[in-house]
UniProtKB/TrEMBL annotation:
SUPFAM superfamilies: NAD(P)-binding Rossmann-fold domains. Belongs to the short-chain dehydrogenases/reductases (SDR) family. The lineage of its organism: Bacteria, Bacillati, Actinomycetota, Actinomycetes, Pseudonocardiales. InterPro entries: NAD(P)-bd_dom_sf, Sc_DH/Rdtase_CS, SDR_fam. Keywords: NADP, Oxidoreductase. This is Short-chain dehydrogenase. Signal peptide: none annotated.
């Protein structure tokens, strides 16, 4: 049995990732900040539900405590929860975006580390973004160059950096960051762009199911490693 936790899994890419990992036989915990949305998603998939708001220390601690009591370990952690934060360019908006997209990774990782250390093949996937790649946002030929999403990009750069730093400080655990591909979800609905969440979830599943000798400290999309 592979025990898996996905944050922000009540919809979008996280929900589809849960669905695909369940097919592969994982025991999947849907982390969701809203209990009703999370319970409905878990019931629809045959997954388990934990209330988990990545911006709330008590919620994160309680969620990992629940998994620890039930399973005694965590094999796969997917940091998927995220917000676009395109509704302002001010301190409160910046705090909310960084709290969710970057600080949330620290909260959940720190709470999960003792359980990940109990796994024979612990793997952490950060659903980051190429909007947080310095290579992409400084290259006029890339779509990320033209995105007016400064807070999102900066918070995803931090998410990728945290993933790389955890890979170095936790050599027994694989930490990889992913650009999942532009996807039609509630996050991108206003732009009317993107492929299906099913397709992007396949890229998450690939990194979530690496062998024990798989890579760590990388930033990838479905085709392999991306420049930083
Ligand atoms: N869509 C794309 O093109 C694209 C491209 C690159 C990267 N990504 C990344 O992919 C990930 C998933 O995004 P998506 O496109 O699937 O968007 P989505 O459908 O809007 O899903 C985002 C998920 O994050 C959850 N979330 C937000 N704040 C949270 C918090 N404080 N605690 C726990 N959960 C929280 C949302 O829960 P609620 O339902 O409660 O709001 C929702 O379940 C994000 O990290 C995003 O940045 C997406």
């Amino acid at each position: 049995m592979t025990i898996t936790l996905i944050t922000g899994a009540n919809k979008g890419i996280g929900f589809e990732t849960a669905k695909q990992l369940l097919v592969l036989g994982h025991v999947v915990y849907i982390g969701a900040r809203d209990a009703r949305r999370g319970e409905e998603a878990a019931a629809a998939l045959g997954a388990r539900f934990v209330q988990l708001d990545v911006t709330d220390d008590a919620s994160v601690s309680s969620a990992l405590g629940t998994i620890g009591s039930a399973e005694g370990r965590l094999d796969v952690l997917v940091h998927n929860a995220g917000v676009l934060g395109d509704d302002g360019m001010d301190g409160p908006t910046a705090l909310r975006v960084f709290d969710t997209n970057a600080v949330g990774i620290v909260r959940v990782t720190e709470a999960a580390l003792p359980l990940l250390r109990e796994s024979a093949n612990p793997t952490v996937v950060t659903v980051s973004s190429s909007a947080g790649s310095f290579w992409a946002v400084t290259n006029p030929d890339r779509p990320e160059f033209h995105l007016p999403l400064a807070l999102y990009s900066a918070s995803k750069a931090a998410a990728t950096m945290l993933t790389v730093q955890y890979a170095k400080s936790q050599p027994g655990i694989k930490f990889n960051a992913l650009e999942p591909g532009t996807t039609a979800t509630d996050m991108t609905a206003a732009f009317g762009i993107g492929r299906s969440p099913e397709e992007s979830a396949r890229a998450v599943v690939r990194l979530a199911t690496l062998d024990a000798d798989g890579p760590t400290g990388t930033f990838q999309d479905e085709n392999g490693e991306l420049p930083w």
